[in-house]
């Protein structure tokens, strides 16, 4: 049984709490929330604290709070030489205060409030400042996920940038697609099966193999027809840049 | 029972054949393939023809061939005043020769050779040049799909452009994500659950609601860190343009 304390009560903390409660090898010692009225479902209210001075001994302290508060909160912890980890893809290991043993416990997924996730398939990206701590963090991660990876700070940075492309930027393209639908009186719902299939294709094909479309085929007449169809400047700029980039891809720009 | 003849033996034609064979209200009269050695699974070989002069009477002729061959092939059909439709999102209704009644039977999905699809959920976008033909095409579509829409040429053009954003461009972002992973020695597989979740989120949230990330939050320090991480010019150009576009979105550019 590994004893875990959570610091934070946001999106990630709440999802971690729900899944830790179902894991047989994990005991949640306490949950810290600076705002004691935050609703933390299913947790015994005696375990919810809002003063760092009330923190009890645990094997791991997981700080799941906004990136820019990690340094300050980790410096306020009233103990030393314990294992303290954050859950961020973007924050460096060294954003954690040096008085404790440091680590990262980064679930590479996008969480939505109220939407349950299956942690078993979520990649858990782990790093510890000293090798002796890795097995502890690994035990916590394998208690909830079958998809656990040792990822150093450089690799995590790369993953975080790549995640911006495949998640934030992709979702923005969905937004532009939605806009085009609204402007032309077609329901965006019609595109949803295509969106799902585009993502699911990656389970059988590499993105390179899966690439299709006018830019890839260098189908100039379709590209011209699309460009003259798009009257919105933002949409048409993005269309041109991505089309050119696909056409030139592999070549030196 | 509606009698359907398919002209073409490519990706779309083969998927349509497989699904028509399972539909109780559809009889496949013939399949035309210019190349008689093309493998067309499950079809009685006597029904496979490679001369237009062998074409028998049918209620609908579905031309599922490359966009730029639709005009020429439809002009070679040795009959008049029958219902002839194409399956393209990009080709206009008028690419079909005027000697027959025209229509469009556009399955809005990306098909992969050998990967079965569930037609029941695929949006079928229908158009006919005369209203009397619409019910015939609708019967064919509802025999295979629960997701049938009357879509005029202008709307189809909009959907096709929007599909480029949510399918071709999105897949290209997956390709850039994959590249970043390869360059930094992390397996691209780690990003796949995130990619799937990003698509699946649209079932509960609008893309606008689902938008997250440093650009959306205007988190300048993360954006700068990402920009200095990306040494590849193409990746960094796309990163900048999409980040700016998300930041300015809604504002006048
Ligand atoms: N969201 C995701 O999809 C995702 C995925 C992977 C990793 N992460 C990482 O997980 C961490 C938490 O993200 P999140 O999405 O859960 O954020 P969130 O939902 O915005 O929650 C942030 C939490 O941090 C607390 N907090 C902020 N500043 C604080 C301070 N100075 N002192 C104490 N508590 C403070 C907030 O408390 P109040 O409620 O009182 O404001 C809240 O509980 C971040 O490092 C993030 O990068 C997020
Ligand atoms: N692929 C998709 O995901 C998708 C989705 C929706 C709609 N569509 C539309 O469906 C249509 C077919 O696309 P596809 O993906 O099935 O194409 P495909 O797999 O490339 O197959 C093209 C077919 O057209 C035939 N063909 C080409 N030129 C011809 C000519 N001059 N005379 C006779 N046959 C000719 C080819 O015959 P050979 O085999 O002998 O070359 C082949 O059977 C297109 O209009 C496309 O826009 C495609």
Q: What would your notes on this structure say?
A:
Two copies of one chain form a homodimer. With 253 residues, chain A is an alpha/beta fold. The first copy, chain A, has two domains: 150 residues, Rossmann fold (3-Layer(aba) Sandwich); 92 residues, N-(1-d-carboxylethyl)-l-norvaline Dehydrogenase, domain 2 (Orthogonal Bundle), CATH 1.10.1040.20. The first copy, chain A, has nine helices and eight strands. An eight-stranded mixed β-sheet of chain A has the order 3-2-1-4-5-6-7-8, with helices on both faces. Chain A is elongated and about 70 Å long. Chains A and B meet through helix 4, helix 5, helix 6, helix 7 and helix 8 of A and helix 4, helix 5, helix 6, helix 7 and helix 8 of B. One NADP nicotinamide-adenine-dinucleotide phosphate (NAP) binds next to helix 1 and helix 2 of chain B. Chains A, B: It holds the Pfam family F420_oxidored.
Short description:
Two copies of one chain form a homodimer. Chain A is 41% helix and 15% strand.
Mean pLDDT of chain A: 95
The count of strands of chain A amounts to 8
The largest pleated sheet of chain A is described as:
8 strands, mixed
Name of the CATH architecture of the largest domain in chain A: 3-Layer(aba) Sandwich
Q: What is the oligomeric state here? A: homodimer
Report the largest inter-chain contact. A-B, 90 and 90 residues
Sheet/helix structural class of chain A: alpha/beta
Q: What is the count of distinct domains of chain A? A: 2
**Approximate strand percentage of chain A:** 15-25%
Radius of gyration of chain A: 22 Å
CATH hierarchy, class of the largest domain in chain A = Alpha Beta
How far apart, in Å, are the first and last alpha carbons of chain A?
55 Å
Bound molecules: NADP nicotinamide-adenine-dinucleotide phosphate
Q: Provide the CATH superfamily of the largest domain in chain A.
A: NAD(P)-binding Rossmann-like Domain
Helicity range of chain A: 40-55%
Per CATH, what is the topology of the largest domain in chain A? Rossmann fold
Query: Shape of chain A from CA axes?
Result: elongated
